[in-house]
Amino acid sequence: MSDIVTLFVSASTSSVKAERRFQKSDSVEHIKSKLELVVGIPAGSQRLHLKDTNGKDVCILEGVDTLLGAFPVEDFFGLFVSFIFALISFSIATAAYSKMFQVGWGA
């Protein structure tokens, strides 16, 4: 069994299709950093979908320190990179919100 697998990389943000070789000892974080220049998606905004040779979903590669070999990966599987959005949310007290947008009408 080889420690290197060949995967076909594609992305949601472009028409990129590339063949890449990865070591099964590569971490998910390392793979994402290698793919950043290929697909144009920052590593922190990537979700990696492993697909079998028929294009069916196998799993999502999760866990930054998890090694590629921990997943059921085989030669010539697909690796689809999708862009995930990070939404920042915060709360503010009603009184503070009202004060920020108070408009002085009249005298």
Largest sheet descriptor:
5 strands, mixed
Strand content: 25-35%
Enumerate the strands of the largest sheet in spatial order, edge to edge or round the barrel: 2-1-5-3-4
**What is the mean predicted local confidence, pLDDT?**
88
Helical proportion, percent range: 10-25%
Order of helices and strands: EEHEEEH
Rg calculated over all Cα atoms: 21 Å
Tally of contiguous helical segments: 2
Structure report:
- The chain has 107 residues and is an alpha+beta fold.
- It contains 2 helices and 5 strands, in the order E-E-H-E-E-E-H.
- The protein has a 5-stranded mixed beta sheet with strand order 2-1-5-3-4, with helices on one face.
- The mean pLDDT is 88.
Short description:
This protein is of the alpha+beta class and 107 residues long.
Protein topology:
Layout: E1 4-11, E2 17-23, H1 28-39, E3 46-51, E4 57-61, E5 77-83, H2 94-100
Parallel strand pairs: 1-5
Antiparallel strand pairs: 1-2, 3-4, 3-5
Overview features:
5-stranded mixed β-sheet; 31% strand; 5 strands; 2 helices; alpha+beta
